[in-house]
Design goal:
The chain is 87% helix and 0% strand. It is mainly α and 229 residues long. α1 packs across α4 and α3 runs antiparallel to α5.
């Protein structure tokens, strides 16, 4: 995955306007993570884990603000308005998955984010974009800490490294299933839109013809009534 990110990064970030959109997408993702972690802090039975979730949520709040600010700067430089505040929803992951599976999911996300942001920091360093490079490097330290503490808690709750690895594999399968379902919904929406377009194109000419014939018949009937008076 990291190799693929490294290959496409130079192309992706050079698309006009894409950088601002991508950074704003990161802001929304961090905001969504914040909501999930606040729910985890509310629902966990451990005061120690609650404190760690709250600290993590505070980091995500700050990250969302940093990404949104840099996105707005890039939009402003291009003469455009920013996207506004990063609003996100929640999937109630802690309640749906339980604490162990939630931790496995979060750990995988933090590890994936760290690897991705390392590539991005290197990319912007090579381009001389110090501001965006520093943005990613500053967040990287938090991502590494989040990755470490979630792994520690996962081992603690499952009882062993092997059990933790099993939960991580299960989390990978669940993520794949969720991604497949989301892709399926998106494809279904596209197919529906295309089908409705075809129906419209097929039905529109006969419908228009019938409508014109109906209007012509109505005019003739009115003319006949007028002449019969």
């Amino acid at each position: 995955m990291t190799t693929l990110v490294r290959l496409v990064t130079p192309l992706v970030w050079r698309v006009p306007g894409h950088g601002a959109r991508k950074l704003f997408g990161f802001a929304r993702a961090e905001q969504g993570s914040r909501i999930d972690l606040l729910q985890a802090a509310r629902l966990t039975t451990s005061l120690g884990r609650r404190a760690q979730y709250l600290r993590h949520a505070a980091d995500e709040t700050r990250h969302a603000a940093l990404f949104a600010r840099r996105s707005t700067e890039l939009r402003t430089d291009a003469g455009k308005a920013g996207y506004g505040p990063p609003i996100a929803d929640t999937e109630d992951l802690f309640e749906r998955l339980g604490e162990v599976r939630f931790l496995a999911f979060v750990h995988r996300g933090e590890a994936r984010g760290r690897r991705q942001f390392e590539v991005y920091a290197q990319h912007f360093a090579s381009r001389g974009d110090v501001r965006t490079e520093q943005l990613f490097r500053g967040i990287l330290a938090d991502e590494a800490r989040h990755e470490d503490y979630t792994r520690t808690l996962l081992v603690e709750l499952t009882g062993s490294e092997e059990a933790a690895r099993t939960e991580l594999r299960r989390a990978a399968l669940w993520e794949a299933w969720r991604t497949w379902r989301r892709a399926g919904r998106a494809i279904a929406g596209l197919v529906f839109a295309l089908a409705m377009s075809v129906v419209y194109l097929v039905a529109a000419p006969p419908t228009a013809l019938v409508s014109r014939l109906g209007r012509g018949r109505t005019r003739r009937q009115r003319r006949q009534r007028y002449l019969s008076l």
